[in-house]
Amino acid sequence: MSKRKNFRKKIREAFDTFTESPFYRLTIFFVLLFGGTAGIITLLEIGKNDGFKSFFDGIWWAVITFSTVGYGDKSPITVPGQAITMIAIFGSMALVSLLSGTFASVFVESNTRARRGLMDFPKLEGHIIICGWKNNMSDIVKDILQLSDKTSPEKIVIISNIESEKIEALKELPELKKVKYIRGDYFSEDTLKRANIDEAVKAIILADTYESSSSSEADSKT
Question: By CB distance 3.0 to 4.6 Å, which of 113, 174, 180, 209 could disulfide with 118?
Answer without folding.
Answer: 113
